[in-house]
Amino acid sequence: MTTDYRSLSNDYVLHAVKKEKSLIFDRGEGSRLWDLDGKMYLDTMSGSAGPAMVGHAHPAVAEAVARQMAKLPSTNILHESVPVIEFCRRLAAITPHGLTKTFICTGGGEAVEAAIKFAIRVTGRVEVISLTGAYHGMSLATMGLTGMPAMRSWLPGAIRWPAFRQIPSADSYRPPLGEGPENWRAAVHALEADLDGASSGQVAAFLMEIVQGPNGHSLFPAEYYRGIQRVCRERGVLLIVDEIQTGLARCGATWASDLFDVRPDILVAGKALGGGFPIGTFTTRKDLIPDTLESEAWHMLTFMNQPVAAAAGLAVLDIVEKENLAERARVLGAEATEWFRQLARRYEVIGDVRGPGLFIGVDFVEDRETKGPATTACRKAWEYALDHGLITQFGGIGANVLKFKPPLTTPEADFKQMLEICSDTVAFIQQEVDRQKVKRAAPEPAGVAR
Ligand SMILES: Cc1ncc(COP(=O)(O)O)c(C=O)c1O
């Protein structure tokens, strides 16, 4: 008799964001996953947008983790290990200029939280500003830095850490401050106005993603990054960049910051960096660190700066370098972007296609004028794609932005097949939206009470 894992899961696993059609997987390799029935799926999401950036179950990562587990899995927090030192040194060599000291922990949100605490400690100020549409994690503190109300609305009173707030972003497709060729200026001014008006000189840091992945791939004009950077420098506010999704080759450069010449004071990473092993990091400037800080308990975690995460990270950095994954992200990203842009010529339901690199968002709208999200059709499309062997995810406030971020090591044949199934999925969404429009336009049957 075979074990009924679905029913055991319902009985024993406490889920979040579970869906009726959620699958139970058995194994993975590269860009492929197999469920318990042995059915194969192609993964356009690299796990949850990154851990499988080098591919699922990469043998070099598996080997490095196994080796470190057998040699030295953990150290007491008062002591150190060689892989941690090596990994931090390697990260320093590839992070934007001047960022040389790294803190390692077990996840992205946790790394954001550590970075924020660090910024508060070193500046002696308590306020932190982030953007509308931002997503930085789901701990009680990082939720208060989220600019996606739905992520917080379930908390009684949508309560947040009192010194955290959001200002309008420069989202190019749905600009919160209104349409206009230079509306990024208004968004930069929003930061200046906040620093001048809303705070009393208490702002420690400004925190942003280069591309807001969870918000539905919101991208800002290049000038915006420059403007924000200038304001932060002028006012002595630390610039923290969250590259948990965009980081490490994904966008066609080591960091998405590199594409826009953004020079953060603190850079946060996670997801892809562990090749499937849980990891989060932040890297900062040595000159920001007060003499006594490293011997204080400003932050303390059982799993901070531990050797297995570092071993996984070192293996991932090797793969990124050897397989030239930033270049691969550029090449495959250009191919996929062009593919979706061609589809946008045929299907009106595609409102926008956004990169950069192999970090692509396809925004589905009911109407290109109003940009109203095609939410219902996209919900069905997720199931459609799954039935056709494709793991996808639709994000954004309207859950209407198809994210396309497969492993950077995806073989050519799998990549083509992913794009083919995506094409069918786009056609499906168009049909659904058309069907809904016809239904809405149809006269009500006679005799229906108003
Ligand atoms: C931009 C960004 N920041 C922070 C996080 C939180 O990372 P984690 O889920 O590893 O805590 C995520 C996760 O999706 C993210 O995309």
Can you walk through the features of this model?
With 450 residues, the chain is α/β, with parallel strands linked by helices. It has two domains: 5-54 and 324-439, Aspartate Aminotransferase, domain 1, CATH 3.90.1150.10; 59-322, Aspartate Aminotransferase, domain 2, CATH 3.40.640.10. The protein is built from 13 helices and 17 strands. The protein has helices at residues 5-12, 46-49, 59-71, 82-94, 108-123, 140-143, 183-198, 222-235, 256-259, 307-322, 325-346, 375-387, 412-441; strands at residues 25-29, 32-35, 40-43, 99-105, 127-131, 164-167, 203-209, 211-212, 218-219, 238-242, 266-270, 280-285, 350-354, 360-364, 390-391, 394-395, 401-404. The strands form four sheets. The chain has a seven-stranded mixed sheet, with helices on both faces. Strands 1-2-3-15 form a four-stranded mixed sheet. The protein has a four-stranded antiparallel sheet with strand order 13-14-17-16. α3 runs antiparallel to α10 (307-322), α4 runs parallel beside α10 (307-322) and α11 packs parallel to α13 (412-441). The radius of gyration is 23 Å and the shape is globular. The protein starts with a helix and ends in a 9-residue tail after the last helix. The site of pyridoxal-5'-phosphate (PLP) has 15 residues, from α5. The site of pyridoxal-5'-phosphate has 15 residues, from α5.
Features:
binds pyridoxal-5'-phosphate; 38% helix; 13 helices; alpha/beta; Aspartate Aminotransferase, domain 2; 4-stranded mixed β-sheet; 2 domains
